[in-house]
Amino acid sequence: MTTVFITGANRGIGLTLVRECLNKGYQVLATYRSKESTQALITLDQQMSKLSLFQLDVTDYQAARELADVLPPIDILINNAGYFGPKGVGFGDTDPVEWRRVLEVNTIAPQMLVEALYPKLLAGHDRKIVCLSSKVGSMTENTSGGGYLYRSSKAALNSVVKSLSNDLAPEGFTVLALHPGWVKTEMGGPNALITAEESVDGLLSVILESNTDKSGRFIDFRGDELPW
Ligand code: NDP
C-alpha cells in the first residue's frame, strides 16, 4: 500500500490532497500546525481508518526529527505547507522579519523535512519527493515585478529541488517542483481560476505518472513543464 506524507493538511490544497489520497486507498500521514483549525481533518479521520494525524510546525526541526522516529516507511513526501507573507506590499516596504519567515516556511523547512524523513523515504518503495512551488518563482515568468518575499522563496525552493534531484539520484529518488495553478484557497483568494479539487486531480496525476526521468523538473498541475 502506498503511504503519503502531507504537510499543511488542515486546509486548502493540503486538505484536498489528503481527501483524494484517501479516496485512492492510500495510507495518509497528515500534519497540521495548530489544533484550532483541524475540524475538517478530524472529521475525515473519523471516516477513514487509513488517516493518521500529527501536529507539526514545519519550522520546528527538532519536532520533525522526533516525529520521523515514530513514522512507518514513506513512499511519497508532499511538502505542501506554505506562507505568502503580507499581501499588497511592494518596493520600498520590504519587511525583513516577514521575509525571513516566508523563507523559513517555503524554502528551509522543506529541505529540513526531507533530511529528517530521509531514512523513512529510503525504506519506502516509490522514493518520491514533491515540493509545492509556484509559477511566480520562475525568473522567466516574472514580467510584472513585486512579490519579493514569496517569489524569492519559491525560486530558492526550486533550487533546493534541483540539488535534491542530483544528490538523491543514485538512490532512485524522483524530486519534483510542482505549480498547482492559481487555486481558490485562503492563499489563492476567491478570484483564483481553479478549485482545489481540479488542482489536486492534476497534481496527483503528475505525481503518480512521474518517474526518475522527470526528476529535477518544474511542472504544473496539467503536466506541462515550466521554465525556471
Ligand atoms: P493556504 O494558505 O490555503 O494553506 C497553507 C497551509 O500551510 C495551511 O495548512 C497552513 O497551516 C500551512 N502552514 C503555513 N505555515 C506553516 C508552518 N510553519 N508549519 C506548518 N504548516 C504551515 O495555501 P494553499 O493551500 O493555497 O497552498 C498550498 C501550497 O501551494 C503552498 O506551498 C503554496 O505556496 C502553493 N501554491 C498555492 C497557490 C494558490 O493559488 N493557492 C499557487 C501556487 C502555489 P495553518 O492553517 O496553521 O496556517
UniProtKB/TrEMBL annotation:
A Pfam family assignment: adh_short
InterPro entries: NAD(P)-bd_dom_sf, SDR_enzymes, SDR_fam
The organism's place on the tree of life at top rank: Bacteria
Signal peptide (from-to): none
Gene3D superfamilies associated with the record: NAD(P)-binding Rossmann-like Domain
GO molecular-function term, one example from the UniProt record: oxidoreductase activity, acting on the CH-OH group of donors, NAD or NADP as acceptor
Protein family according to the UniProt entry: Belongs to the short-chain dehydrogenases/reductases (SDR) family.
Protein name according to UniProt: Short-chain dehydrogenase
Organism: Veronia pacifica
